[in-house]
Amino acid sequence: MAEESRAKSWEIDFFSPADALGVVELYRAIYGENYPRREVYDPEELIRQSEAGETYRMVARTDAGEVVGHVALYRSSPPNKELYEHGQMMVRHDFRQTMMAMKLISESMKKIPPRYGLEQVWGETVCNHLFMQQSAVRQKFHETALEMDLMPAESYSQANSQSTNGGRVSTLVVFRTFKARPQTIYLPSVYEEMLQEIYADTDCGHTFATSDEILPAEVATVGELQMFTDAGVARITFDETGGDFAAYLDDVEGQTVAAGIVVTQVFIRLTRPWTGTVVDILRQRGYFFGGALPRWFDDDGFFMQKIVGSPNFDGANLYSKRAKKIKEFIEIDWQAVTGTSL
Question: Domains of the chain (ranges plus CATH)?
Answer without folding.
Answer: 2-177 (3.40.630.30), 184-334 (3.40.630)
